[in-house]
Amino acid sequence: MTGHRRTILTMMKDEAADLLEWVAYHRLIGFEGICVYTNDCTDGTDQMLDRMQQMGLVRHFRNVVPDGKKPQPHALTLGQKNPEIRDSDWLLVMDADEFLVIKTGAGHLDDLIAACPPDTQAIAATWRIMGSNGLVDWNPGLVTASYTRSAPDGFRKGWGVKTLFRPFPHLKLGIHRPTVQQARKDPARMQALLDQVWINGSGRPLPPSFKRAAWRSSAASVGRELVEIHHYAVKSAESFLLRGMRGNVNNKVGKYDATYFAIFDRNEEPCDRLLQHRSAIEGEISAWLEDETLRTLYRTGLAIHAERIARLRGTPDFQARIAVLKRAGAVPYDQLDDILYVQPLPPQSKALVRKMQASGQDDRTIARQIANSLRALNERRDAEEAAEMAQMARDGSG
């Protein structure tokens, strides 16, 4: 089978409760190729996808992860060898807690592509971090209707990108953006990438330094006028605890802790753009659930999640864990630099943090030192990309 015109590649594990909404939404906005790799599902997500494939809604592939490998990188390796994915006109690699939000025209992929320069080969859409809306209970309803508050535009910790792009020779897939295989050994391949036209979410050309290695927007390159990614990083407090039980695609131990919740439970701004699609999403889901097999699998998946929530609620420390998350989510926006968030740091920086803690420095002091260092790095990158983009404008390439 050949590739689709417009394809999403994603990885899933135990997404039965939210699977139908995610697929329905992205099909409605113009992706006919929804390609899903699953691993180690225990709630029937893989069986649901099998049935949905039979119904012509998705393509489902098993991600049998070898010992010592991580689910997400392994799925990416499989995906870039898969002609159904590789041979697409447009490809987007994204996660199941992310929704591509098109802010031009009627919110359809056609509208986005029409609004971009005709030679565009990649569109870097910046995250908008969506908060819990103060919800505690697990909510099996529509994610896009339940969580309608977000971080403000300037929340730099949430400036990661996901990239919609035209596949090209020697492609190497990444979770945030593509690059080229063996770029260091073959400079011509990297130059071919640098020669491509990449734009930000406002349609403005991105500079060479971004195309070379960046996976986050800078103050110079960020843009949201045409498109962005809604990232539902936490959902409700109970959903967050349930997510921690499931694990994560890169096998990071303890990733979903209270510190993560404090950083990403941002509710400063109303953000209900996706409510415009609610009736269409619900209509699609209702039509699909006319299929008895899918309906049974979906209800079974919901029951499994409900049983897991019931077990969580029955644990002796459940109320204490919820209280910790409530306190974490209540940290004001302007005090986030006081939180010691080491997860995204490189190994050598994590080792330095442990050394500083062992010497008696408190976490708040260490967090502020990290924030100051990151601020200096960000300012340098902002200046570099701003200079490049100004030069591009003078050269007529921006």
Automatic annotation (TrEMBL):
It comes from Rhodophyticola porphyridii. GO terms for molecular function: glycosyltransferase activity. It comes from the Bacteria. GO terms for cellular component: cytoplasm; membrane. It is a single-pass membrane protein. Keywords: Membrane, Transferase, Transmembrane, Transmembrane helix. SUPFAM superfamilies: Nucleotide-diphospho-sugar transferases. InterPro entries: Nucleotide-diphossugar_trans. Pfam families: Glyco_tranf_2_4. It is found in: Membrane. This is Glycosyltransferase family 2 protein. The keyword Nucleus does not apply.
